[in-house]
Amino acid sequence: MTRDFRIGCGAGFSADRLDPAVELALHGALDVLVFECVGERTLAFGHRDRQA
Known about the structure:
Blueprint: E1 7-11, H1 19-27, E2 32-36, H2 40-51
Parallel strand pairs: 1-2
């Protein structure tokens, strides 16, 4: 016997909205919600801004 396991995935950038993630968490009927949020571009921009 098998059971469905629902995975929600997303990626974000430093200025992205959180509303879609909240909507998935509240109404997505998911078992887990996984995000990749700190990409190389975000890190590079953060480093650049700290150097300024």
